[in-house]
Design a protein that fits this description.
single chain, 574 residues, alpha/beta, Rossmann fold, GMP Synthetase, Chain A, domain 3, nine-stranded mixed beta sheet, five-stranded parallel beta sheet, 19 helices, 26 strands, 23% strand, binds 5'-O-[(S)-butoxy(hydroxy)phosphoryl]adenosine, EC 6.2.1.1
Length: 574
């Protein structure tokens, strides 16, 4: 079925936490994992305790937990520091009446304050909602409104994108910056922190109580609030052990922003549940800066994304030679298909295999992966994590034999499975429409050796540089522009970004196509929604293909774009 299936890259001889995949898979038992947490004994659970305080209690308080660098800062925080700071923020939250179950958002660029705030929010038992710093007014408002957020932590610059008067639930905004003008509902983060006690009573919650709300895009409607609970830490911990292969002395760097699930599950929870030193780099950076970060921090485990690895491949081999990357032991990737060529290139140039991992915002943690002790087949996502049963099923739930393409599905439940789509039960149920299974929305096949191969998304969701963008959200913004009558948005294959956003637009009366207008429209989306959601290509059309019920047929747009047959056109209007 696939000429690549025969190609393998053998595992290195060095030892790994997993050992034999087959044995680990056959003997797996979640109860054994649970025994490694304090709640197994105390019955009390809070992820922030397990990630930070537990290590202090175990005498590791002086170990570096966080090394932060960006253009202007270079700082280190021990587990003890993070314990004290997150306690302080928890106390600040308490003093503003914020308690268990409240939704509290963080909307800031990567900074130590972001990580401290997030931990503090979890410590009071509130549900944290991380927002990517590039979101503009509408994107921010939609998410705060849908979740009914009562508080927000942000910076002076980003505060201007928060439409406070349209958000009646939002009572308190903590602003972290210099010389904050305090007013009704606006609180000076640093001033409050300075006053707060470093001791705090952690809110012990149930395993099924809310932890985090990540908004993610679907093909229709507004973004969905994917809700995860404290119990997810079992998956974060276990995959941190066998997939990331975290060991006591590792220096770990996950390049993702906490605005996306990779940046929390694997940028915060997994590494700190294992008590390892976590490197965080803020700001935008060039290949040289990335390599510098690895060299200066002696990073041993590096978790990034295909779009970044393609950028490095494009930047070439010579630049790699200018840095000492010998500290690297283990490299991983997530977010979109990892091209076989990139795996081969990485193996040759870094002398390390790049381990692809597959999962989703909804799954909360890694589910299908490559492991340091298992041969890699370049182009394959790997095999299910021990404890996870994956299968290719047809639309009726029948399991398909090897090499047949179908729905990539996971047996329910598993510890980090989403527990709700906020305010949207029907959406949630769609994922579980076939009894006993979670339907991912991805298509794939499994080969005779049990390796899974990604084929595509079933819906129209666009994956650009590893970020999932719902075409509907972009289209809705586009039609707010006075010149735009209708818009249809698709992902167009792109060698570096995976896909780019292409918009087909029909104009209103009185407007005519021009290059300036294209630019203006792209800018409009960039400033109203976010830079990563702005179309990189725009094509004007007199009319867009639509169904009789008025739905824009994105698959027809895609077929036009790629010169493919448009398929069944029975529902199209004249
Ligand atoms: C979608 C989920 C969860 C981390 C980041 C993305 C695609 C993810 C892979 C992979 C091929 C992948 C899928 C999936 N995807 N990892 N290793 N190979 N495709 O999370 O934004 O929720 O997107 O990303 O299509 O369904 P997300």
């Amino acid at each position: 079925m696939n000429q690549l299936q025969g190609e393998t890259i053998a595992a290195a001889a060095s030892s790994s936490n997993l050992g034999s995949y087959d044995e680990a898979y056959a003997n797996f038992n979640w109860d054994e994992i649970e025994k490694q947490f304090s709640w197994y004994v105390t019955g009390k659970v809070n992820l922030a305790y397990e990630a930070i305080d537990r290590h202090v209690d175990a005498g590791k308080g002086a170990k570096i937990a966080l090394r932060f660098t960006d253009q202007s800062r270079d700082e280190a925080y021990t587990f003890e520091d993070l314990q004290a700071l997150s306690n302080q923020f928890a106390n600040v939250l308490h003093s503003y009446g914020i308690t268990k179950g409240d939704r509290v958002f963080v909307f800031m660029p990567r900074s130590p304050e972001l990580y401290v705030s997030l931990l503090g929010i979890i410590k009071v038992g509130a549900v944290v909602g991380p927002l990517f710093e590039a979101f503009m007014e509408t994107a921010v408002k939609d998410r705060l409104e849908d979740s009914g957020a009562v508080a927000l932590v942000t910076t002076p610059t980003l505060l201007s994108r928060v439409k406070r008067n349209e958000l009646p639930s939002l009572k308190t905004i903590f602003v972290a910056g210099e010389e904050i003008e305090v007013s009704e509902g606006i609180v000076d983060y640093h001033a409050e922190m300075a006053e707060a006690s470093t001791d705090c009573e952690i809110e012990w919650v149930n395993r099924e109580d809310g932890l985090i709300l990540h908004y993610t895009s679907g093909s229709t409607g507004k973004p969905k609030g994917v809700y995860h609970v404290h119990n997810a830490m079992l998956q974060h911990y276990y995959t941190g052990k066998v997939v990331l292969d975290l060991q006591e002395d590792d220096i770990y760097w996950c390049t993702a922003d906490p605005g996306w699930v990779t940046g929390t599950s694997y940028g915060i929870f997994a590494p700190w549940l294992h008590g390892v030193t976590n490197v965080i780099r803020g700001g935008r950076f060039t290949p040289g800066d990335w390599y510098n970060t690895i060299q200066n921090n002696k990073v041993t485990i590096w978790y990034s994304a295909p779009t970044a690895f393609r950028m490095f491949m494009g930047a070439g081999e010579d630049i790699v030679k200018q840095y000492n990357l010998s500290s690297l032991r283990h490299i991983l990737s997530v977010g979109e298909p990892l091209n076989p060529e990139v795996v081969r290139w990485g193996n040759k140039v870094y002398g390390r295999r790049i381990h692809d991992t597959w999962w989703m915002t909804e799954t909360g943690g890694q589910l299908i992966c490559n492991y340091s002790s298992m041969p890699i087949k370049p182009g394959s996502m790997g095999k299910p994590v021990p404890g996870i049963q994956a299968a290719i099923i047809d639309d009726n739930g029948k399991i398909l034999p090897p090499n047949r393409m179908g729905n990539l599905a996971i047996r329910t439940p598993w510890p980090s499975m989403m527990r709700l789509i906020w305010n949207n039960a029907p959406k949630y149920e769609e994922y579980f429409r076939i009894p006993g299974w979670y339907i991912s929305g991805d298509t794939a096949f499994m080969d005779e050796d049990g390796y899974f191969w990604f084929q595509g998304r079933i819906d129209d969701v666009i994956n650009s540089s590893g970020e999932r963008i719902g075409p509907f959200e972009v289209e809705s913004k586009l039609v707010e522009h006075p010149a735009v009558a209708e818009a249809g948005v698709i992902g167009k294959p792109d060698p570096v970004r995976g896909e780019i956003i292409k918009a087909f637009i029909s104009l209103r009366e009185g407007y005519s196509p021009s290059a300036e207008l294209k630019e203006e429209i792209a800018k409009f989306v960039k400033e109203g929604l976010s830079a990563h959601a702005a179309p990189r290509e725009i094509e004007f059309k007199d009319k867009l293909p639509k169904t009789r019920s008025g739905k824009i047929m994105r698959r027809v747009l895609k077929a036009w774009e790629l010169n493919l047959p448009a398929g069944d056109l029975s529902t199209i209007e004249d």
